[in-house]
């Protein structure tokens, strides 16, 4: 059986011109890639505002993200773009501030917490099925919209113990879409050393407005819980916010203040719903174009769950479903590029990197690297049963990053995806629509600019 080769931006034969890079990167960070990008171990680009080094070699990736991570902090440029929404959150901070925040937040995503929040995930997934049941059988539908809704709902329930419905849902979806679209445009002036006020002032204003809309919704739910906790009334909550309210700095014994709490919840909301929504939408696109894989998933889930409501323990019996999502994360890693910065002169291969040079490690490129994976552009969830793929997983698979800054919500995302995909394939069959192809854009996450429209058929 031939493997399905899903859509991706075909790389140019040669490196893009300065002019093309300027306008391309404003639209999508994938537009500047060319064929050699998928073969090289390390490359460099010198733009007016930045010396940029692309690192693909596994040993150097490990050096930057794991072994010497302290010498390669997160890039300040990305932090500035995200600060209106995420503030001084764990996603944007470095050094001692980041260590304090990470130490205070790690317990919120432990294995015990995942078991506690599973019923909340299940409630949101059940509501998702009720919404999809309202669609006429066999109709086409943009599943990207529903995956965005259900993952946002799960984050709201698991963090705040409230469902995300009505005007709040639409306000957040609109604001997040705009914030995503503007992110590359806000970074372009820095990359090309153009005064931001010259052409991008309106974009910055729109980005701040979108961020404030999102934060205002979050603050409305967090404020009463925060005030009650400060007055000695933690309430009967077993959600993530409860664990964040109770978190203490291991050295000083102090907790998060209100603004810090909003920063962290905004970060969890962005990282927890946007990345999962992206990956789940792509998963459905992939299985809709691979009907035999989809049928095997259905049979596996039916055997594991029957017609019963899923339990936490049931999720261990859906190996193919997990591999489908693993392969989705390889082909469409939610965050396509990690940006780091040197704090001193560094030597890598035959290059000398000056202090404050920008290093980009790209899961998008590494997951599709021609020397690190066999048939890298094909969708093949069965590849993980082969020795070659197991070796590739060790050195060339990093959808959640690596090292001390590995995503703390990785296990949460995997559990959520496994549950949602299992419930979807048990109830529906997804079919591709002839002539309808997603258009990839790489911004804060890798999404389809025109959505992911599929036919949904009830089983």
Summarize the structure.
By secondary structure, this protein is α+β, with helices and mostly antiparallel strands.
Characterization of the model:
The chain is α+β, with helices and mostly antiparallel strands. The protein has one domain: Orthogonal Bundle (Cytochrome p450). Helices cover 53% and strands 10% of the residues. The chain has helices at residues 18-27, 58-67, 76-86, 95-105, 111-133, 143-160, 166-192, 196-199, 201-230, 240-246, 258-288, 291-305, 319-331, 363-366, 387-395, 410-427; strands at 42-47, 50-55, 140-142, 338-341, 346-348, 351-353, 358-361, 428-432, 440-442, 446-448, 453-458.
CATH topology: Cytochrome p450
Number of strands: 11
Number of helices: 16
Largest sheet: 4 strands, mixed
**Tally of individual domains:** 1
Placed side by side, the strands forming the largest sheet appear as 1-2-7-4
Tell me the CATH architecture: Orthogonal Bundle
């Amino acid at each position: 059986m031939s493997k399905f080769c899903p859509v991706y931006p075909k790389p140019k034969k040669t490196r893009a011109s300065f002019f093309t890079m300027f306008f391309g990167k404003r639209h999508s960070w994938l537009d500047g890639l060319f064929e050699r990008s998928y073969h090289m171990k390390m490359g460099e680009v010198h733009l007016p505002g930045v010396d940029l080094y692309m690192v693909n070699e596994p040993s150097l990736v490990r050096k930057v993200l794991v072994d010497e991570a302290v010498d390669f902090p997160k890039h300040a440029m990305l932090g500035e773009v995200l600060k209106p929404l995420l503030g001084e959150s764990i996603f944007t901070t470095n050094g001692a501030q980041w260590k304090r925040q990470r130490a205070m937040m790690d317990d919120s995503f432990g294995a015990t917490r995942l078991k506690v929040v599973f019923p909340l995930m299940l409630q949101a997934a059940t509501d998702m099925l009720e919404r999809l049941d309202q669609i006429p059988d066999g109709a086409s539908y943009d599943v990207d919209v529903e995956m965005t809704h259900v993952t946002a709902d799960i984050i709201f329930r698991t963090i705040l113990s409230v469902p995300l419905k009505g005007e709040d849902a639409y306000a957040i979806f609109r604001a997040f879409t705009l914030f995503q679209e503007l992110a590359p445009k806000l970074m372009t002036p820095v990359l090309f050393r153009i005064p931001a006020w010259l052409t991008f002032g309106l974009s910055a204003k729109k980005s701040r407005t979108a961020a404030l809309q999102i934060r205002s919704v979050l603050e409305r739910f967090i404020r009463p819980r925060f005030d009650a906790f400060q007055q000695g009334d933690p309430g009967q909550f077993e959600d993530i916010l409860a664990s964040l309210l109770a978190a203490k700095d291991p050295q000083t014994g102090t907790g998060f203040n209100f603004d810090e709490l909003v920063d962290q919840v905004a970060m969890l909301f962005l990282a927890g719903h946007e990345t999962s929504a992206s990956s789940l939408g792509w998963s459905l696109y992939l299985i809709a174009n691979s009907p035999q894989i989809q049928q095997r998933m259905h049979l596996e889930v039916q055997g594991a769950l029957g017609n019963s409501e899923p339990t936490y323990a049931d999720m261990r019996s859906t190996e193919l479903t997990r591999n489908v999502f693993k392969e989705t994360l390889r082909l469409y890693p939610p965050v396509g590029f990690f940006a780091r910065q040197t704090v001193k002169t560094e030597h890598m291969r035959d290059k000398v990197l000056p202090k404050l040079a920008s290093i980009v490690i790209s899961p998008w490129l590494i997951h599709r690297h021609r020397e690190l994976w066999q048939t890298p552009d094909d969708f093949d969830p069965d590849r993980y049963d082969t020795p070659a793929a197991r070796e590739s997983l060790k050195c060339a698979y990093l959808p959640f990053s690596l090292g001390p800054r590995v995503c703390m919500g990785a296990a949460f995302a995997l559990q959520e995806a496994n549950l949602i995909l299992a419930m979807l394939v048990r109830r529906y069959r997804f079919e591709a629509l002839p002539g309808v192809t997603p258009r990839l854009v790489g911004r804060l996450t890798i999404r389809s600019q025109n959505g992911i429209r599929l036919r949904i058929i009830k089983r």
